[in-house]
Structure formats: C-alpha cells, structure tokens
Amino acid sequence: MAYKITSACVSCGSCADACPAGAISQGDDQFVIDAGACLDCGSCADTCPSGAIVPEG
To answer: What is the rounded CA–CA span in Å between residue 41 and residue 30?
Structure first.
C-alpha cells in the first residue's frame, strides 16, 4: 500500500529528502507521491513535521 500526502502538507520538502526511492516531488500545490515508485517504507511519514503523509486506502 502506497502512502499519500494530504492537504495538511506545508511543502517543506523533508519528505522528498527522506524518500529512498525518489518517489516524492513538488506538485502544483503541495508535494506528491508517485504510488508506482513508492516502496511503502514509511520514511516520508516518519519525517513529515505536519503529519500530512498517511497510508493510502
């Protein structure tokens, strides 16, 4: 199950730096996760200061 970034994202970029797969990039309004590249490791969720990253589903 991939992770997703909710509207609580403050676009700080800490999740992109933490992602070992490079699956996170800056979107139009906030950062986004490429579900196909996500390894489901949770590194991004652990680093998000606003708690904006949650398991999808």
So the answer is: 21
The one-letter amino acid code at 24 reads I
Per residue in 16-53, pLDDT (tens digit) is 999 999 999 999 999 999 999 999 999 999 999 999 99
**What is the distance between the alpha carbons of residues 23 and 2, in angstroms, rounded to a whole number?**
10
Q: Which two tokens stand for residue 55?
A: 């398991």
Question: Could you please report the per-residue DSSP string of 1-57?
Answer: --EEE-TT-----HHHHH-TT--EEE-SSSEEE-TTT-----HHHHH-TT--EEE--
Instruction: Please tell me the pTM assigned to this model.
Output: 0.91
